[in-house]
Amino acid sequence: MNVRDSEHMIAELNTKEPYELTEELGDADLIIINTCSVREKPVSKLFSEIGVFNKYKKDSAKIGVAGCTASHLGKDIIKRAPAVDFVLGARNISKITKVIEEKHAVEIDINHDDSSYAFGEYRTNPFKSMVNISMGCDKSCTYCIVPATRGDEVSIPSDLIVGEIAKAVKTGAKEVMLLGQNVNNYGKHFTANDEKLNFTGLLQKISKIEGLERIRFTSPHPLHMDDEFLEEFANNPKICKQIHVPLQSGSTSLLKAMKRGYSKEWFLNRCEKIRRLCPQATISTDIIVGFPNESEEDFEDTMDVLEKVRFEQLFSFKYSPRPHTVAAEFEEQIPNEIAGARLTKLQVRHTEILDEVMNAQMGRVHKVYFDELKAGGKISGRSDDGKLFFVEGSEELLGEIVDVKVTKVSRGALEGVVCN
Ligand code: 5AD
Ligand code: SF4
Question: Which terminus of the chain, N or C, has less C-beta within 10 A?
Fold first, then answer.
């Protein structure tokens, strides 16, 4: 989501003056640090980065802090780091042309109506198209800072979404990634619009776009994975067979304390249904360990779900208490060593599962959409089920979907040769 927000910033800047990206810090006239604040670590990194940028930038260059940390720390960023020229919240991107003009401007209103979400056109890579379908989040997961930094959930009108995707297709994209905090809650919060379309309806509408061959989305919420949606996922040939189902915890009582709205049984039931309807699909997940009060038994429930679902990809985190969240006030915080040991156990077991999954890929053929040139005469892309591929090849493969046979496997990526 931040990558797309950065593209929106460049698009807005370009409406006033042409900007281009540079890899050389010393060449930059404007440095924007687009931040995350979901855990404590990136926030502390921010201040050390500001120090480095300030030291090596040219004198006239401005530094801006954007994104979720900008939303939640606001003017305190400038107090702590006066080298920062402006602070721009995650919901305030359309104001970028204004804040770069003012010294120490701070724009962080989370319920700001961001210019009807119609930003200018800009993509760092024409073959990788991301399109927002909603903004903000209407949930209140007790560990999560996002509703406080990105504001209320708003669904973007479907005609705007379709228009944006059609433009991306015209400039070379065959695949789109739909973005939202909670994509399958789409349609619950249109503003000033009598549109009635849910996420399944939106997927069907997007599928009709000529020239668009693949649709991905992130992140759906397990609570809203109704049968209608899972059947659309399984049966619509344009929808890539890769789905993120964020578990967070396998313990029903912890899920309750997290206010996730589903139980261990519901989660397992949804994953079983995905595996049954669509055996070729890969399932990824997010897991937090060491949430306040997490007992050994709770953690074993998480391990049990890992064992049963055998996620193909795992994003796992130690719980990090965040400001503006309910859980930060809970008394039973888990000692760091215990959370660390649980994280290691979870990751070690997942690695074993992943090795089995990836080793089984040897010799298989996947349809790969190539979207990026790499160093050393390589090109990268993803299979329909989301596996990362590296293949020897050049420009002519960019934007193409071709059959690739796997010749080498590793945990993170596959290598292969184009089948003729
Ligand atoms: N501590 C640790 N992980 C968190 N996440 C969100 N908030 C926290 C937190 N306070 C994780 C969740 C979410 C992912 C984007 O980040 O797993 O799905
Ligand atoms: Fe955070 Fe929960 Fe919203 Fe996801 S659904 S962004 S975890 S509050």
Answer: C
